[in-house]
Specification:
Elements: E1 7-13, H1 16-32, E2 36-41, H2 43-53, E3 61-64, H3 72-86, E4 97-101, H4 110-126, E5 133-139, H5 145-154, E6 157-161, E7 164-167, H6 174-182, E8 196-199, H7 204-217, H8 221-241, E9 245-252, E10 256-263, H9 290-297, E11 300-304, E12 311-317
Parallel strand pairs: 1-5, 1-6, 2-3, 2-4, 4-5
Antiparallel strand pairs: 6-7, 8-9, 9-10, 10-12, 11-12
Helix pairs in contact: 1-2, 3-4, 4-5, 4-6, 7-8, 8-9
């Protein structure tokens, strides 16, 4: 194929044959070039591709999409870790990773769907400068029209067939798309009886209050530890960059435990970095890991970071044990 640099394509398919036309040659070309090939797709598409690849099927790693696409930030982390572990061959030479990655869209709320759209857009930033190649299948038979339309805006290219593609005429710059997603965020929570104020040097009680709240809801112990660690990281950021004081608001609904950390800000605060916590940080960097950790431990996160006052809201899915 002779392409270099990061490639991110959407494959909008309406039949099994169209799925195979857009993925089979892609996988075979990758194996022929010595690339790592990973297919994270719906179970029925695993069966289709596995059979079509024949004796070469064992050279492709298959993962059921339902086991991979749990939440956007952790999926981003999984792909980043996978590529880092497979981007060299046995001799240490650089190697391209080819991914067929099919997000799971059914049964998502509007909020979740928007965050998955944001994730698809941010892949263009996270993997910019790498040689990797991602093809994202979209099943037009089953997906809402809005989800399919979003693929045209979050992928620079569209797959048209075996070894055929074209630029997307409606591709949106990730920064612009990110801003659009932010406009759909919910407003801040009103004051309530479960609010927990905190301040510099007096935030340890946040752990105790949150642990008690989670136990009262029946949150499993390990998930409670994740919740406490993520919220405390957000509180620490608020203390350091948001004027030294703020409030933690705790709520729950049928789907999530919601933890909102807000502060009054400080005019001296530096401008928020672009895409805060969405992109894998440099492991050698001293700073810049806080929001990444928050997102990895949470199921969904929204943020409005501003010198005049910031609001970070963490969502933790309520499991069967809750």
């Amino acid at each position: 194929m002779g392409r270099t640099g990061f490639v991110h394509q959407a494959l909008c398919y309406g039949t099994d044959d169209e799925f195979l036309e857009g993925t089979l040659t892609f996988a075979r070309d990758g194996l022929g070039a010595g690339d790592t090939v990973l297919a994270v797709v719906a179970s029925r598409n695993i069966a289709l591709l596995d059979e079509a690849l024949g004796h070469r099927s064992g050279e492709v790693e298959f993962i059921d999409a339902d086991d991979w696409y749990g939440c956007p930030s952790r999926t981003m982390g999984q792909y980043n870790a996978y590529c880092a572990a497979h981007d060299t061959d046995e001799t240490g030479r650089p190697r391209r990773v080819r991914i067929i990655g099919e997000p799971v869209w059914p049964d998502r709320t509007d909020f979740e769907t928007r965050e998955w759209m944001r994730y698809e857009s941010l892949l263009n930033v996270a993997f910019a400068g790498t040689p990797h190649w991602i093809v994202c299948p979209y099943d037009t038979r089953a997906l809402p029209a809005g989800v399919v339309r979003s693929a045209i805006r979050t992928h620079p290219e569209l797959v048209l067939g075996a070894r055929e593609s074209a630029p997307s005429g409606r591709y949106a710059d990730p920064a612009d798309f990110y801003a659009e997603c932010d406009r759909g965020q919910p407003c801040g929570l009103p004051a309530g009886r479960d609010d927990v104020p905190f301040a510099r040097g007096r935030s340890a009680h946040v752990r105790r209050a949150l642990s008690a709240y989670a136990r009262g809801l029946g949150v499993p112990e390990q998930r409670m530890y994740d919740m406490v660690a993520a919220v405390y990281e957000a509180v620490d950021n608020s203390v350091r960059f948001g004027g030294g004081r703020g409030v933690l608001r705790l709520r729950s609904d049928s789907d999530f435990v919601i933890c909102e950390v807000s502060d009054d800000g400080t005019p001296a605060s530096a401008a928020a970095p672009p895409f805060p916590g969405h992109l894998p940080p440099d492991p050698r960097a001293v700073n810049g890991h806080g929001m990444w950790v928050v997102r990895q431990l949470s199921d969904l996160v929204t943020e409005a970071l501003d010198p005049a006052g910031s609001v970070v809201r963490l969502y933790f899915r309520r499991g069967a044990a809750v």
